Amino acid sequence: MPVIKSLNALEILDSRGRPTVKVHCTLEGGAVGRASVPSGASSGAAEAHELRDNQPGRYGGLGCRKAVEHVNKDIADLLIGQTIGSQAEVDQKMLDLDGTSNKSRLGANALLAVSIAFSRACASEKQVPLFTLFNEIAGGDPIHLPRPTINLFSGGLHAGGQVAIQDVLVVPASAKSIDEALAHTYAIFQAGASLAFDRYGYRLLRADEGGMAPDFSNADEMLSMAVEAIEKAGLRPGEDVFLAVDVASSHFFRQSAYYLGEDPISSEEMVERVAGWVDTYPIISVEDGLAEEDWDHWPALV
To answer: Which of 74, 102, 106, 251 has the lowest CB atom count within 10 Å?
Structure first.
C-alpha cells in the first residue's frame, strides 16, 4: 500500500491568468503525482467552496495562498508518513479534517488538488494510465481511454454573451485512437474557423475555454454551424462526430423565466427547446439544460 513521503503545494496561474493551486505528491517508492485545479467561469450555488484569499490588492482577491498553506501544513501533517489503503481513505481523511459540508475550511481547491495528485502518484507507481486506475476504483473493466469532448463554439460566460448557451463541443465517435480523435477535431475546428470568417468576418480568436465566439444571433445558428463544420471537414454528423451542449441555463434564468433572447420563455418552453435541439442536431450530451433550482421541471427534461 502506498505511503505518502512528501506533499507540497504552490500557487500558479491557470489559462485565464487566475490563481489556482498545484500540488506535488511523492510516495515512498519514488512515484510522483502532480495536479492543478483551475475553476470554471460558472459555478452552481451548491458547489464545494473554492477558498480564495479575498485580498483586494492582490489578484483582485482571487489569490490562493490560504489554500496552499492548508496543503503545506494541515493536510501534509495529516497525510505524510501515512500508509493509505485506498483513494477513498485519503479523501475521507481530508473531509474529516475539514469538517464542513462544503469544504469551506480547507478549501475544495486544496482538497481536490491533493486527491488528484495522490491518485496520479498511485497510477505512476502501478505503471498504469490514470483512467485505468479510476476504472479499477469504480469496479469497471477499461478497454479504451474515454472519448474527449472538445470545445468548438462558445457563448454565455465563456465568451461575450452573444448567445445565451455556454458551449457547443464536438465528440469524435468513430476515431480509433486519441491521435485520430484530435486530428478529426482539428479539421472540424479549422472548418468552423473558415465558416465563421466567411459568414461573420470573425478572426480565429478563442474564448475562455478554447472555443470560438462568432456573433451568432441565436443558439440554433450556433448548433447549425457546428454541423456544417463537421460536414466541411469531411466527417459525418451523428456517425463520425456528435455534439455535446453545455447550456448553463442558470445564467439566463431570471424571475422564473429563461432568456435565450430578449423575450422570456417558460420552463415548459425551455424543455421543448432543448428537446427540439436534440431531435434536430446530433447531440449526444446536454449539460445544465435547466436552471439548478428549477426542480419541478427537471423530470420533464430528463
So the answer is: 102
Give me the half-sphere count of Cα atoms (radius 13 Å) on the Cβ side of residue 80.
14
Q: Helix (H, G, I), strand (E, B), or coil: what is residue 192? A: helix
Question: 212 by DSSP, 3-state: which?
Answer: strand
Query: Mind giving me the DSSP string for 84-120?
Result: ---HHHHHHHHHHHH-SSSSTTT-HHHHHHHHHHHHH
Q: The C-alpha cell of 167 is what?
A: 458551449
DSSP annotation of 248: -
- Backbone dihedral angles phi then psi of residue 190, each to the nearest 5 degrees: -65, -35
**How many CB atoms neighbour CB 144 within 10 A?**
9
* Chain CA centroid to CA 42, Å: 10
State how far the Cα of 13 lies from the Cα of 205, in Å rounded to an integer.
21
192-239 pLDDT, tens digit per residue, is: 999 999 998 877 766 666 789 888 999 999 999 999 999 999 999 999
Helix (H) / strand (E) element for 199: namely helix 178-200
What SS3 state is found at 4?
A: strand
